[in-house]
Design brief:
354 residues, alpha/beta, 10 helices, 16% strand, globular
Length: 354
Amino acid sequence: MKLKEEFILQGTPLKNRVVMAPMTRSRAIGNVPNALMAEYYAQRASAGLLITEGTAPSAQGLGYARIPGIYNTDQIEGWKLVTKAIHDKGGKVFIQLMHTGRVSHAANMEAGTSIVAPSAIQLSGMMWTDAEGMQPYPTPKELTLEEIAKVQQDFVQAAKNAIAAGFDGVEIHAANGYLLNQFINTATNKRTDHYGGSIENRLRFVVETTEKIVAAIGKEKVGMRISPYGAFNDMEIYDSIDETYLQLTRELVKFDIAYLHLAEMTAPGIPAALKAALRDTFKGAIILCGGYDSNRAEYDLDANSADLIGFGRPFISNPDLPKRLFNGIALAAPKEESFYTPDAVGFTDYESVS
């Protein structure tokens, strides 16, 4: 069974090819990781690689209620609890750096911060805030060139903080309609300077940010998540999607990063031809993620379509998911009503099989 095989991720040994995908869980009270989160991740450390929930690289990057950050001393110390708990169980973990951009609300942010995006385009719909309940998304402020440089530096410092906190690496979140994806997508980037318009310009922010992070912590400690054709958070399907992501991948090859993580959260999904082209172009590991079970995972690994397979929601209610996948053991169903609540219920209280 290929899913059970060990894998070397640019020098980082993984005990199997199962990846725990990043999932927002909203347990970081005050945006600081804690002992409850350490217990949660340690319970799931039998995965070959764990990728944390999206974590803000700055106070400005906070979006959802109770998501963690990695930009101050308390957060670094909190994450040390998590990384130690995972490493004590023999696991490996990358932190996902997620600046939510326009997907935010002032009630979920620190005082004195502002909601920013490539362009001042409001996201439709509403988001939960602990202080004010459901609220409409505000119109974001368009980033100036000086502010863009500051955001990039925030990512670099967050990556350094992550290594100081004991992480094995960082995943740059360029998917699912958050800030980096907002620069890439034509629905959210209407800029007329060198960060907007052409494919090269719309990729510039992501490419520059990646280059700076690689220079700061090393190529073997960097991965990226992308979501071509993803419609989450009002991303649109545009004519040049395939060429956009092929060009991004060609740029990433220059930096020789550890992996490229393809996320399929929403219809229509990534066309098979584009997946194959990205696989042929990228020189590092490919992680495929979205709706997998063990049979589909084995099929794609056997076909050499991927090196690693990401599993999201099944890990919520099955802390021992690799064991269940390897042995054909039925999966427990999650309690969806407790996905984003603040306590241990529906978080650390799921049982493992003996």
